[in-house]
User: Fold this.
Amino acid sequence: GNSVTQMEGPVTLSEEAFLTINCTYTATGYPSLFWYVQYPGEGLQLLLKATKADDKGSNKGFEATYRKETTSFHLEKGSVQVSDSAVYFCALSNQAGTALIFGKGTTLSVSS
Amino acid sequence: EAQVTQNPRYLITVTGKKLTVTCSQNMNHEYMSWYRQDPGLGLRQIYYSMNVEVTDKGDVPEGYKVSRKEKRNFPLILESPSPNQTSLYFCASSGSWSPFTYEQYFGPGTRLTVT
Assistant:
């Protein structure tokens, strides 16, 4: 079945540093890929998505490109802020389209 | 404001005492789902519903029940809670679900502790 693997955390960065969180997937067909973010004490929010190969999703300075050849969807941001401190989840739909399959989450902590 | 609401947000209970966590969405979404979040395991689906009166098991349904009598509500029922059901629970809804375009909106979460 479909699955997703994302890098273990926590990731600790200084403000304005470059961020990469790796995500690779295994899937049948061509599922949409997602990054969700969970701020402390809150539910998950969709950060960005890509629906087909070579698509680039972007939002709030974050970007991720759907790479079919490397089965990857790495999250990047050029200059992180303290307010970006959160848990980030990579996700894709299961084969039946009845659920999202999430990675285990990567905790990002940004200090000023 | 479009949203998914859950109640209660926090609950401490004892083993065996039946409880219900409510979930409601105001977006007229057909699809709703429950997940639990545990450290090191990420989010796992408990149950989902594709429409009124249509529900099905997710990956970890044991010990849970759901019902979907109205489109907007999808309560999660624990008939006899046990300590291994201590977790953070999220309700989610989606107005469009296909294997290729699938986006869900999440509630704020319910933190349940069973002693």
